[in-house]
Amino acid sequence: MRFEGVLPEDAPDPRIGHARRLELMPIPIIGLVPQPSLEDVDMVGFQYGQDTRGYSEMSASISYTLWRNPADRSDPVNLAELDGQGRQMVEGIPPWPRPRWLVEQAERLRYPQLWEAVRTTWRRDASELSVGRVLSDHLNHVLINRYRREWPGRKAWTGHAAEVTVRVDEVDVRGLAIDTDPLVYAVGASLGDNGVVTAVLPRNALGYLRIEFETRRQRL
After folding, report:
1. Which among 67, 61, 17 has a CA at the least distance from the CA of 43?
2. Statement: residue 85 has pLDDT above 80
């Protein structure tokens, strides 16, 4: 959903529309298991592809807020390091009323965000669904969009992933991990039913996280 100009105070929360689109996913959406340091705030991105036969691929990507000290959210250790643009978005309060959901989104920018951290990917043609390819696509997407300062001159990641065990819905399955990038750690596994789950997580957040997955319940 795109808005132009000044949003009226009663502008609808775009997450409601996102939730309706997520119902199109042919397979359940997967996220990280609930844990104190993570907050799922219903920031779920949705992408799809179509052809003459209908939907050919879909993906849903979950973003999280990271709490380094979840027992005391007022602890300054929880704050993100904001650049000039980030501070302007947080502190630049306009002189007109804003929708509550927009105020909440701006306030959350004060804290570290794990942007599109977990992605569920479905493809109609199973032959086009490789865990390694989906994992490297997700990793490069996060690097290009969230690490622009560190990215100049770097090539897209095209190396090999290592086999690991991944826990999904309390079951251990075979998966792949990319543990060679200095900025992020990436891991993924097949879900069956033409689906793959992948996660791309900042290395500086790994000490606060338990990397296990489960089916995500719809929030809105």
Report:
1. 61
2. no
Q: Domain ranges in the chain?
A: 14-63+115-215
Nearest Cα to 86, choosing from 60, 105, 73, 100?
A: 105
Return d(Cα 59, Cα 46) in angstroms, integer.
6
| Cα–Cα distance measured from residue 127 to residue 88, given in angstroms and rounded to the nearest whole number | 46
Per-residue model confidence as pLDDT tens digits over 41-74? 888 999 999 898 888 999 999 999 999 999 999 9
Residues in the chain: 220
Closest CA to 200 of 154, 141, 139: 139
Residue 190's CB: how many other CB atoms inside 10 A? 20
> What confidence tens digit (pLDDT) does each residue in 199-214 have?
999 999 999 999 999 9
User: Which pLDDT score, from 0 to 100, does residue 13 have?
Assistant: 73
How many angstroms separate the CA atoms of 83 and 203, rounded? 20
| Residue type at 46 in one-letter notation | F
DSSP labels, 156-183: PP--PPEEEEEEETTEEEEEEEE---SS
Nearest-angstrom CA–CA distance, 57 and 213: 22
List for the chain the helix, strand, coil content (%; round to 5). 25, 35, 40
